[in-house]
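Standup notes
- HV: blocked on the assembly model, inputs below
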Amino acid sequence: MFKTNGFINCRHASQSMLQSTVDEKSGIATMTMNKSPVNSLNLEFLDEIKTHLNKFEKDNVRGMILTSGLQKVFCAGLDITEFYNPNPDRLAKFWTTLQDTWLTLYTTPFPTVAVINGHSPAGGCLFSMSCDYRVMVGPMYSIGLNETKLGIVAPKWFQDTMVAVIGQRKAEISLTTGRMYTTDEALQIGLVDESVPDTDSALIQGKQFLNNFKRISPWAYKMTKNIGRQPVVQWLIDNKQEDLDFVMKFMQSPSVQTSLGNYLQSLKK
Amino acid sequence: MFKTNGFINCRHASQSMLQSTVDEKSGIATMTMNKSPVNSLNLEFLDEIKTHLNKFEKDNVRGMILTSGLQKVFCAGLDITEFYNPNPDRLAKFWTTLQDTWLTLYTTPFPTVAVINGHSPAGGCLFSMSCDYRVMVGPMYSIGLNETKLGIVAPKWFQDTMVAVIGQRKAEISLTTGRMYTTDEALQIGLVDESVPDTDSALIQGKQFLNNFKRISPWAYKMTKNIGRQPVVQWLIDNKQEDLDFVMKFMQSPSVQTSLGNYLQSLKK
Amino acid sequence: MFKTNGFINCRHASQSMLQSTVDEKSGIATMTMNKSPVNSLNLEFLDEIKTHLNKFEKDNVRGMILTSGLQKVFCAGLDITEFYNPNPDRLAKFWTTLQDTWLTLYTTPFPTVAVINGHSPAGGCLFSMSCDYRVMVGPMYSIGLNETKLGIVAPKWFQDTMVAVIGQRKAEISLTTGRMYTTDEALQIGLVDESVPDTDSALIQGKQFLNNFKRISPWAYKMTKNIGRQPVVQWLIDNKQEDLDFVMKFMQSPSVQTSLGNYLQSLKK
């Protein structure tokens, strides 16, 4: 039915920031982000995530769980140092890789679950929302698109991804205020689907969700998901360059650089 | 105010699969599907439904209730035998008739209520969702777009119709898992508007909903509804041929034919 | 941070129908509609509202509260006398001013709160929904887009504004039936965000909402809001003339004129 051809034993498994395993019996892949200290998404890490996703697709996995191997953090989002005093070529490559990784994650031909076992701001929230289902460990963690709090802007496709999950009204207020939600608040507004007390329970619930697809034709699943997600996806496909130009221009503007500098300074303290 | 010119006495009333009556006082039409055993929507039945809807429009009815005269089934959806080993010409005519019937139902110039007094999978759910309001008899029946469970795909306009009723998030999970909802579950997610214990109560509630429009100008109603439903409608109008081509290609593919064969076999048992 | 240059002392403050003040410390503007008897939106009043909004923008206010200085009425909506036996030139100017005022209000670069301290039908509801947040005084007032009840039609951008707040399903049923909601009903469907017992509490809650933006960069706020609201806005920008033509044609049609005449007659009694 699916082939894993030893993915678990490949170079990624041991020394990498990203660990992937595929359960031979169920065909369920687990991708564990393990990049200390906070799973920040820099160019190399994004590239690795994309590579793993593509491999899962080639191996015809039947589902995937995305989770964190760190204590307390699911994913802190985009690595701010990619934006601060950037080399323009690297910044362009970084953003393009983010676009492509998101496109891959958002349109996987297999169902996906985010097991959110730690804080999940900004890009961490984006990747969670891009999965088919979200199980979050509570009650102490937080999740949200808090870009405005950093003085930056969530691009249209971040926003559309959130609108698809919680609707226009809740997305607007969430995005403009840059609000982070506790697990229970996130559950209440529909930003996550389940709240559980620990990672083990979250993994169990995640797999239970994937069991819904056991007898669903992968082709029918894939076509159905793609029809629904197509408008959001198509916007980015049609506006990749424009989206990049926007980021290149504004992220390098003096006022945003100052905001980011202050933010990085505050992190050090 | 409206003319019924003896619709109740026309050839459809007694020997037909579809019975229509118009209450002279209120101007409310009732269309009762009575095609044993499960009101499956084949070419001829769809054509008849469309004809009745067009007649209601010509007669300026003030509202319509769509219900079933069968025990336990509102409408089982599209007749699968139209897809299994099909004659291509008939398949094309069948699908085009479905498109046209849906366009007519979704844009009636009068308000419509689905009185869902039995199971309502797939096309039965689509027709329910295309009405302005849904009253469902509970607690024993089920409703949903379960296409993926049959190894097939709900086309974009099925999906958009569902999104308009329950929103993007709930529609995606419902569509990809092919889930059927009990009456109470359907009420909870907004897939139906009311749950009642029997058909008589459902008819009463349906008529009560239509009373909201007693003093509303039919022109203002029609214009208001059309503005809101236009995006979903326009997609199908703009993509009728493409939508047909998709169905012709995939429904006749060997893998889908195998799925449908297995499904039909399971029904016989 | 922001400049008020004596706005509170300008000609608008005392003898005008519209009173604006800016709190020097917080940068929060308050715009109070005070046009007896019901704050009906005629050409001149709309023009004044637009002028004040533009001034707020120039003065870099940090937020705005829109409220009423009248007893029992927030805003009764568009002045029906602008539609009844209209001078075509004035009608065109009126509608264009409405379009422009709404565009300005819907896209303010600062957060806005409607403090709905009285009834708010039709255009009053539109302006409330165009703010970022709604606090409504309860339990005795009502709000809704009740155009169909008057025999007229809420244009697409009215409808889209409502869909953005309460979603497609609730907007459709609300719009076609022309339903007015009590404060508690409005809270329940999400048409308002808070219900409070009096105007003073409403102003406090409104200011508290605006406090969310104290540490948010105005630029990040503005960009984020505009990305989300752009589709609704763009439709009107792209269809201003078409929208005007529709209004010019239908509002002057004999049947709508008769409806409006009857309505105005009923108001006099």
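- HV (later): unblocked. The two ends of chain A are 52 Å apart (CA to CA). DSSP finds eleven helices and nine strands in chain A.
- Next: hand off to the docking folks.
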